[in-house]
């Protein structure tokens, strides 16, 4: 069977090379006589796999030694709670930027633990842009500032790094981690669910500056204290071993591709193919502000929404799947993470052109 071009927002397409390697190694990993899924997480084989994955991620993202890399579970959604539980550190409030559905979820959860100061919101224009930093009302006493540099549903990406002075910057990078280089030293904490640009679901990566650890809220469960995992190399309990192995294969693949700078160039070129076409027609419409157009998630609508079903059906027949927009916003969304080849984006645009010709 042919593989399709999968535009899912997550779990998302993985590089074919990675899947093939995993298949080849599935029942007998490198001659050890068992699958990675069957290994003790404390055995030397798996310890090696985890250490290599961490080393490769550190190299790709240039993560300095005073940052811990944690391999956790619970999804990015659990980080909505773990961040305030661990980073309030005696303070009563935190700053949040509100740029869409994922920001809103993070804010809602944080409100269970502290006062939340919304530094700015783009709700006034239906979350189609990100307010510039001049518009933010920062609280110098905030425990941290949380933002979502790529809103997966709205397709709004922030390409600059906020300046929060001494207030630790926290980013939910679930849907744009590894898509371009970032300066980790500007952040106190970065988190991301794996199922978009890292690997399969079930793994959440946290990158945290060491000095922020060790002052959780009273009553924080052991498993929700970052320090538990930092002190135990993410092996306090059984980690998601197979997902870590798969992430490690993705990191190796990224290194073979030339690292994050090369991925950024590729992702710019890919996104341009689609946005250029969207700009050239009024049959389709892209709602996001130009300077915030995500390179990872491209939402668009058809001028005539009664054609949505036919569009999706025809796309599927062309091997282009998972294009339906999020249930909260409707329309279409093409997620074009690292693993989506430019050929997939070109095939989508060809299909969109033909569909326009037929129905326009
Ligand atoms: N944040 C962002 C930006 C996301 O895109 C998602 C998932 N789509 C989440 C958080 C929630 O992630 P999870 O399902 O891993 O909890």
Write structural notes for this entry:
The structure is a single chain. The chain has helices at residues 16-25, 44-61, 75-87, 101-110, 226-231, 241-256, 259-279, 308-317, 342-359, and strands at 5-6, 67-72, 93-98, 115-121, 145-147, 150-151, 156-157, 169-172, 189-193, 204-209, 284-285, 297-302, 320-321, 332-335. The protein has 360 residues and is an alpha/beta fold. The two termini are 33 Å apart. 45% of the residues are buried. The model has no long low-confidence stretch (mean pLDDT 97). Strand 6 and strand 7 form a beta hairpin. A 7-stranded mixed sheet has the order 2-10-9-8-5-3-4. Strands 11-12-14 form a 3-stranded antiparallel sheet, with helices on one face. A two-stranded parallel ribbon has the order 1-13. Helix 1 packs across helix 6 (241-256). The protein has 2 domains: 16-256, Type I PLP-dependent aspartate aminotransferase-like (Major domain) (Aspartate Aminotransferase, domain 2, 3-Layer(aba) Sandwich); 258-359, Aspartate Aminotransferase, domain 1, CATH 3.90.1150.10. 4'-deoxy-4'-aminopyridoxal-5'-phosphate (PMP) is lined by residues 10, 75-77, 102, 148, 152, 172, 174-175, 193. One of its GO terms (molecular function) is O-phospho-L-serine:2-oxoglutarate aminotransferase activity. The modification N6-(pyridoxal phosphate)lysine is found at residue 196.
Helix/strand structural class: alpha/beta
Instruction: Choose one word for the global shape.
Output: globular
Q: What is the total tally of β strands?
A: 14
Overall CATH architecture of the largest domain: 3-Layer(aba) Sandwich
> What is the spatial order of strands in the main beta sheet?
2-10-9-8-5-3-4
- Average the pLDDT over all residues and give the rounded result: 97
CATH class label of the largest domain: Alpha Beta
Helical percentage: 25-40%
Number of domains: 2
So how many helices? 9
Task: Tell me which oligomeric state these chains represent.
Answer: single chain
CATH homologous superfamily label of the largest domain: Type I PLP-dependent aspartate aminotransferase-like (Major domain)
The ligands found in this model are: 4'-deoxy-4'-aminopyridoxal-5'-phosphate
**Poorly predicted spans:** none
Could you state the order of secondary-structure elements as H and E? Answer: EHHEHEHEEEEEEEHHHEEHEEH
Radius of gyration using CA atoms only: 21 Å
**What share of the residues does DSSP label as strand, in percent?**
15-25%
Pathway: Amino-acid biosynthesis; L-serine biosynthesis; L-serine from 3-phospho-D-glycerate: step 2/3; Cofactor biosynthesis; pyridoxine 5'-phosphate biosynthesis; pyridoxine 5'-phosphate from D-erythrose 4-phosphate: step 3/5
Function: Catalyzes the reversible conversion of 3-phosphohydroxypyruvate to phosphoserine and of 3-hydroxy-2-oxo-4-phosphonooxybutanoate to phosphohydroxythreonine.
Keywords: Amino-acid biosynthesis, Aminotransferase, Cytoplasm, Pyridoxal phosphate, Pyridoxine biosynthesis, Serine biosynthesis, Transferase
Binding site for L-glutamate: 42
